[in-house]
């Protein structure tokens, strides 16, 4: 049986594009999870914190982001943190984490900026007034592995890459499925023709 090299190369090309677009889509979507703009489920931050957002009708970007545990606020707009009844959260400015803590920088309704240091599952935050910290880089100050500067506004480039890679992935899947159907049809037709020739030769 003669192998059609063009079809083989085409199938390899389709397979490579499908794999690359799927990987790119997953990687960028994982990064967008930290802005609550993901399309697919991902592992929670430190196993318990979910990033959620709230959109207003007039704004394509979220007005603010919250950190929640199964729907309950860890730190969210209008919440009062345990042990700090005088401080009410207006919005999260930025946040980050390492293997053991989550740190958020937030604005209070009084206009003051604070850092909130959270240990998973303890719900006993440590609040630090931003102006009292001499180290201006929170990554260095708290030894963080990741810091999201503008969680309410996902990078447009990331959104564009994720959306295009997802589009290409599904397009290639459709084309690949079409190739499989056509190959099956050709093989089936060829088998029928061979059987008919055998019957005719009898």
Per-chain topology:
Layout: H1 5-33, E1 50-54, E2 64-69, E3 72-75, E4 89-97, E5 102-108, E6 113-118, E7 126-129, H2 138-142, E8 146-148, H3 156-201
Antiparallel strand pairs: 1-2, 2-3, 4-5, 4-8, 5-6, 6-7
Helix pairs in contact: 1-3
> Strand portion, in percent?
15-25%
The overall number of domains is 2
Q: Supply the helix-strand structural class.
A: alpha+beta
Average pLDDT, all residues: 80
Largest sheet: 5 strands, antiparallel
Question: What is the terminal separation in angstroms?
Answer: 24 Å
Overall 3D form: elongated
Uncertain segments: 56-61
Radius of gyration: 27 Å
Strand order of the largest sheet: 7-6-5-4-8
**Count of individual helical segments:** 3
DSSP strand tally: 8
Please bin the fraction of helical residues. 25-40%
Write down the secondary-structure element order. HEEEEEEEHEH
Folded structure, characterized:
- The protein is of the alpha+beta class and 202 residues long.
- The protein has three helices and eight strands.
- It has two domains: 5-29 and 158-201; 36-153, no CATH class.
- The strands form two sheets. The protein has a five-stranded antiparallel β-sheet. It has a three-stranded antiparallel β-sheet with strand order 1-2-3, with no helix packed on it.
- A hairpin with a 4-residue loop joins β4 and β5.
- α1 (5-33) packs antiparallel against α3.
- The longest helix has 46 residues, at 156-201.
